[in-house]
Amino acid sequence: MVTQTEKTTSPKLIMGHPAPVLEVKTLDGTTWKLADQTPKNYTMIVFYRGLHCPLCEQYMTSLEPKVDAFKQLGIDVIAISGDTMERAQQFQEKANIQNVPLGYGLTLDDMRRWGLYMSKGHFENEPALFSEPALFLITPDSRLYYANIGTHPFSRVDFGYLLQWLEYAIPKNYPFRGTES
After folding, report:
1. What is the pTM (predicted TM-score) of this model?
2. How many CA atoms, within 13 angstroms, populate the side-chain half-sphere of residue 103?
3. Is the predicted pLDDT of residue 134 greater than 80, yes or no?
4. Going from the N-terminus, what domains does the chain have, and what CATH number goes with each?
């Protein structure tokens, strides 16, 4: 059994600071690199648990019809998991995801670098280790603007509420928060 002292820790990410490096393969056959993104306002990265998670299916299904609204606000979207390409394809088909680009193969080092919580699989269909959900907004110059890092499958940001907040925040040039700790 792994004890608490044997587990590695992840950095606490500070808003306004550079985002960690991130590069993943996507189901459209390309390699997505955060450093190459050029959104008008933000890149939204949604980390999801993977194929084994019915809440992820529900969550991504709720994002699917809102992608155009995010794009209208100048926000590019990607959803990423540690699943293999095959599992990501199964997830895409099962959840009928057509508008949300799906990245796969997130490594344990990536999960740690991004400060994601990780869980051991406890049920038959779960991977041995996977990340819990998180959502980040990254500025066009690759700085962390917003983070919501969950510890359980049910700790997720509501996309409708996030859209409302961003409709308010973007025109007001809302400042970075969480910069002092």
Report:
1. 0.92
2. 21
3. yes
4. 40-169 (3.40.30.10)
